[in-house]
Amino acid sequence: MILHNIMNYIELNIPVEGDELSDILVAELSDCPFESFATEKGTLKAYIPQSALADCKEEVDALLERYGVAGRYVQIESRNWNELWESNFEEVTIDGRAVIRAPFHAPHPEFGDLDIVIMPKMSFGTGHHATTRLMVEAVLDADVAGKRGLDMGSGTGVLAVVAVKRGAAGVDAVDIDDTACESCRENAAANGAADRIEVIEGDVRSVAARRYDFILANINRNILLRDMPAYASMLAAGGRLVMSGFLEEDIPSITERASSLGLAGAGMRICDGWVVAEFEHPL
């Protein structure tokens, strides 16, 4: 998601003990319209537009009570979020095989085509979060050459870009957020991939009639569980579904749902409590 350029935001401060609780709360709060998260000195900070808080505050308060933590809402001044984010953005190396950097960082010709340029605009998918790193690693390991794919919940479009750089014939990048779609178009162009990435604003229904050799979905547990039947129906025979955005404790529900749809497990990786799981459509 994206913190839009200039807007009034509420900062929810939640004292947390340990990374595990912080990760769980991030996963839970991601179901509400929070747009960014940060952890600082034992406090999880969650940012939400002031205009959006009223519709979900009761749900958020109930969630915090369920986990036995207290939250403090602070109204923060309008500021240029993109400028702030860009000033703190650091490049990320993925498994020694790819680098994700901003245009203002020095190029890394040693990575060849996998010197990926992503303009940081608070859009999810800069490689800093464990789920993005896990998904990028999965794409680097996958056989996508000459195949067509879907990047569902594409954010910055980094997964679509990596897939194209790995030889994919084309990728549909789908996101419900118009600013994320704009960011994805910019990043596709910056990486010379605009001709092979089609950016689509919408949800899974916007591409339900299409067929893909691989589907990448880095969203959250609830959306994955809800939309997995659509993913399964869009996968070509022998196609691969790669999902992240959920925690270790969610593995049983994810794998059971996939199995009920006839998808076979094809591997799993865990980093900082977050999971990427791969499934195959039977031939």
Write up what this structure looks like.
It is built from 9 helices and 14 strands. The protein is α/β, with parallel strands linked by helices and 283 residues long. It has 2 domains: 9-81, 2-Layer Sandwich (Alpha-Beta Plaits); 124-280, Rossmann fold. A hairpin with a 2-residue loop joins strand 2 (36-40) and strand 3. The longest helix has 14 residues, at 221-234. The model is unreliable at 1-6 (pLDDT under 50).
* Overall mean confidence score, pLDDT: 88
CATH architecture of the largest domain: 3-Layer(aba) Sandwich
Total domain modules? 2
Output the strand order for the largest sheet.
10-9-8-11-12-14-13
Rg, alpha carbons: 18 Å
Q: What is the C-level CATH assignment of the largest domain?
A: Alpha Beta
Q: How many strands in all?
A: 14
Largest sheet: 7 strands, mixed
Report the total helices: 9
Our estimate of the beta-strand percent is: 25-35%
Order of helices and strands: EHEEHHEHEEEHEHEHEEHEHEE
CATH third-level topology of the largest domain: Rossmann fold
Low-confidence residue ranges: 1-6
The CATH superfamily name of the largest domain is: Vaccinia Virus protein VP39
| N- and C-termini, Cα separation | 35 Å
- Gross morphology: globular
The percent of residues in helical segments reads 25-40%
Structural class: alpha/beta
